[in-house]
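We modelled the chain as a single entity of 153 amino acids. Its sequence is:
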Amino acid sequence: MTGGTRQMVEALAEGASQEPAIEVRVQAAQATQASDVIDAAGYVFATPENLASISGLMKDFFDRCYYPVLDRVSGRPYLTMICAGSDGSNAARQIARIATGWRLREIADPIIVCTHAQTPEAILASKTIGKADLARCSDLGVQFAAGIALGIY
């Protein structure tokens, strides 16, 4: 809604797209079906932190896809990215618990970018993610795509 998570995803996708052997697909949670998850070689779960939790749309995605995907994606790699107003750790833990149920492999610590938005005005304002944080996202995309292409993940 405020653009922070989108900027992080775009930076990661740009980095991952440098690997020609990998098809990078960016998809909104509400548009993603269980078949999309089953067909993918790896996953990046990106969400804003909302009230110390993953977004409602991300929760809906996991609610719809969890059981149809269960036992069909075990061992696949994943990453987590959180655009947080405070610390983002609870949202990251939620995703980690779900990924554990799917038996996914976390290949890096979550990237949590804290915007320090604490007032209603700051929370609702458009976000601009700093160059250093976007570079971290891009670099992780390069690593993730290369690891999948090389069969490391």
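As a brief sanity check on the tokenised model: Strands lie at 43-48, 77-84, 105-106, 111-114. Residues 18 and 28 are 21 Å apart (CA to CA).
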